């Protein structure tokens, strides 16, 4: 058994571009769910419009990637307004229903043949991140940190990605520890009380939805730019539930919750993956019981089990406060 | 007690009849109606609330007291009618604008913001906060001084309501009575001209009742107009300057507290029309 290769797989997963993208999206979701109490089950829709904002601008229209980033941000804000203006006037369940539907509707639309001239349909779009890669100041070569090895491209993209995460975390910290943050946390506790104290609850919820959605769009951009490929099926509803898993694992309503949760989630996912493959390769698990193609499904089952244990033994997440958690929210 | 007499004295010459005009009304409501399907929950022709006085709103269960509160404060937007606050039209304003105008309500089921600290609960009540705008909130120097002033004001109120030792606790850990005090203190952070208290004494133990009563009369003496819904008749008799009785959505009687208890319409509303009457009249309940 090669334990170090199992661990390095986990570390690559935790630090890699997919994890970065998901962490950003989970930070956005934390604003919605953790701080404002909005039930957004379609965060993946914001990731999708962000990613395709870049992909379509560059690959379809030949614009600069930076224009694409702006387009993606704008698209996420518009999506938040379209969803929020009607649904945030209603009880919170309606937002949950409309966001989960919006995510699927958008994914199916982007992969449809009608949209193919724009989005590439089921083939997706490729090679739209060159503007960022061309800026790479890291000299080519392989960079080794202990057992880990990164290409110059990885080093550059990971620095940009984690740098972006750091900026967003600082922004969220400042927002939450301000009177604005106090109002949105009050809305999470009790909308009517906030309203009775003269707060325009609807406007705050809309701001929160837009802000978290835009951060989600940045997340979508980060990992599609790294892969240089945007494909609609990378944005299925399960992504949102991964984000919730990360959030609950780290602690919802904590600034670092989604970051820690994301790191851990991806470390566990990929090291478990490597562990199973290792077991199969060394013959501990015979092929009659498990073949490599089952690993993907099995690691999802593990995520489910992990969540169950978490709910049973630490419902507040790693960074959460148990005393705060058990207070009745009435 | 001399101030008490001021508010009562101002109302001394007012006739004890439903919809009567007051010498100095802060709130004037006309034709306020709210129905749920065929049920007319509120149907008030005319009601005036005297400035600087404590007005109690009483009535049997289902009389429409809370519904009237909800309509007047903008929490129930399904009602109709016209009402003016300080002479300015207030009908159909959304709840947060009503609060900005200076009419602040509390709730029958106390709404403590559980996972905010007691201090944060109070800070939230302050209006016109620069740091509550999303973009300004990330630039701390824009609101730091204002925040300090708000904390000072909050601390003074916490001391007044003897909640200062709980300042940094989560509001969710407070007892029922403490929550009532917190809600009142929080409402005062808005600096209201009129307080609408929905059953301020519900679920409060007798020791705290007395201090809550004193707080309410003190507020009146400082010039705040107060209107409350209450079932506790001792409180109604003990604190209010004027009593309005609602039944089946309508104002059926008004008057000073001493007179209201003997008002036949009020007795009818609470006890049913047959009490003491010869059984020949009507047999429906």
TrEMBL record, chain A:
Q: Which InterPro entries match?
A: ABC_transp_permease, LivM-like
UniProt-listed Pfam families:
BPD_transp_2
One Gene Ontology term, aspect cellular component: plasma membrane
Where it sits in the cell: the answer is: Cell membrane
Gene Ontology molecular function terms on file: branched-chain amino acid transmembrane transporter activity
What protein name is recorded for this chain?
A: Amino acid/amide ABC transporter membrane protein 2, HAAT family
Provide the topology term for how it sits in the membrane. Answer: Multi-pass membrane protein
What keywords are annotated for this sequence in UniProt? Answer: Cell membrane, Membrane, Transmembrane, Transmembrane helix
Regions crossing the membrane: 12-31, 38-59, 65-87, 155-176, 209-226, 238-256, 263-285, 297-313
Automatic annotation (TrEMBL), chain B:
Family annotation (Gene3D superfamilies): P-loop containing nucleotide triphosphate hydrolases (3.40.50.300)
Q: Which UniProt keywords apply?
A: ATP-binding, Nucleotide-binding, Transport
Record-given protein name: Branched-chain amino acid transport system ATP-binding protein
Residues forming the ABC transporter domain are: 27-273
Highest taxon listed in the record's lineage: Bacteria
Please provide, in alphabetical order, the Gene Ontology terms of the cellular component aspect for this entry: plasma membrane
InterPro entries on file: AAA+_ATPase, ABC_AA/LPS_Transport, ABC_transporter-like_ATP-bd, ABC_transporter-like_CS, BCA_ABC_TP_C, P-loop_NTPase
Q: What lineage does UniProt assign to this protein's organism?
A: Bacteria, Bacillati, Actinomycetota, Actinomycetes, Pseudonocardiales
Q: Which GO terms describe its molecular function?
A: ATP binding; ATP hydrolysis activity
Q: List the SMART domains hit by this protein, alphabetically.
A: AAA
Cytoplasm as UniProt keyword? no
Q: Does the keyword NAD apply?
A: no
Extract the Pfam families matched here: ABC_tran, BCA_ABC_TP_C
């Amino acid at each position: 058994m090669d334990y170090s290769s199992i661990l390095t797989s986990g570390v690559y997963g935790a630090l890699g571009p997919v994890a970065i993208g998901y962490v950003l999206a989970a930070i956005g979701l934390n604003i919605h769910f953790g701080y404002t109490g909005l039930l957004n089950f379609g965060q993946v829709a914001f990731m999708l419009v962000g990613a395709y904002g870049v992909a379509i601008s560059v690959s379809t229209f030949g614009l600069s990637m930076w224009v694409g980033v702006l387009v993606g941000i704008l698209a996420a804000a518009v999506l938040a307004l379209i969803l929020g203006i009607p649904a945030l006037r209603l009880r919170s369940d309606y937002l949950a229903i409309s966001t989960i539907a919006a995510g699927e509707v958008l994914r199916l639309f982007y992969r449809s043949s009608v949209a193919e001239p724009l989005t590439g349909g089921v083939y997706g779009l490729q090679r739209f991140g060159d503007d960022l890669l061309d800026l790479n100041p890291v000299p080519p070569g392989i960079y080794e940190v202990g057992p880990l090895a990164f290409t110059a491209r990885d080093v550059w993209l990971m620095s940009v990605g984690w740098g972006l995460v750091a900026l967003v975390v600082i922004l969220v910290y400042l927002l939450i520890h301000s009177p604005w943050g106090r109002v949105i946390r009050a809305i999470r506790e009790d909308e009517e009380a906030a309203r009775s104290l003269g707060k325009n609850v609807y406007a705050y919820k809309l701001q929160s939805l837009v802000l978290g959605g835009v951060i989600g769009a940045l997340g979508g951009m980060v990992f599609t730019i790294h892969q240089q490929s945007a494909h609609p099926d990378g944005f299925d509803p399960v992504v949102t539930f991964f984000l919730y898993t990360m959030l609950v694992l780290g602690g919802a309503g904590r600034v670092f919750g989604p970051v820690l949760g994301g790191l851990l989630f991806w470390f566990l996912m990929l090291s478990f993956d490597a562990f199973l493959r290792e077991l199969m390769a060394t013959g501990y698990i015979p092929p009659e019981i498990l073949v490599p193609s089952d690993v993907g499904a099995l690691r999802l089952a593990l995520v489910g089990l992990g969540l169950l244990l978490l709910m049973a033994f630490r419902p507040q997440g790693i960074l959460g406060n148990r005393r705060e958690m058990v207070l009745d929210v009435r | 007690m001399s101030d008490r007499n001021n508010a009562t004295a101002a109302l001394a010459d007012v006739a004890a009849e439903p919809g009567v005009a007051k010498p100095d009304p802060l709130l004037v409501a006309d034709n306020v109606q709210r129905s749920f399907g065929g049920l007319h929950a509120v149907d008030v022709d005319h009601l005036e609330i005297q400035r600087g006085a404590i007005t109690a709103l009483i009535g049997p269960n289902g009389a429409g007291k809370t519904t009237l509160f909800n309509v007047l404060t903008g929490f129930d937007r399904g009602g109709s009618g016209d009402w003016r606050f300080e002479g300015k039209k207030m009908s159909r304003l959304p709840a947060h604008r009503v609060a900005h105008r200076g009419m602040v309500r509390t709730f029958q089921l106390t709404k403590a913001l559980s996972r905010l600290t007691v201090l944060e609960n109070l800070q939230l009540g302050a209006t016109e906060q620069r740091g509550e705008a999303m973009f300004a909130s990330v630039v701390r120097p824009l609101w730091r001084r204002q925040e300090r002033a708000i904390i000072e004001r909050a601390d003074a109120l916490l001391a007044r309501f003897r909640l200062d030792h709980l300042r940094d606790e989560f509001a969710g850990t407070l007892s029922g009575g403490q929550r009532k005090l917190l809600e009142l203190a929080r409402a005062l952070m808005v600096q209201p001209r009129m307080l609408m208290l929905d059953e301020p004494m519900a679920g409060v133990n007798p020791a705290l009742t007395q201090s809550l009563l004193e707080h309410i009369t003190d507020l009146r003496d400082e010039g705040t107009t107060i209107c409350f819904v209450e079932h506790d008749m001792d409180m109604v008799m003990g604190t209010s300057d004027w009593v309005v009785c609602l039944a089946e959505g309508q104002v059926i009687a008004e008057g000073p507290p001493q007179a209201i208890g003997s008002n036949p319409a009020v007795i009818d509303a609470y006890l049913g029309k047959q009490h003491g009457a010869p059984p020949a009249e009507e047999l429906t309940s």
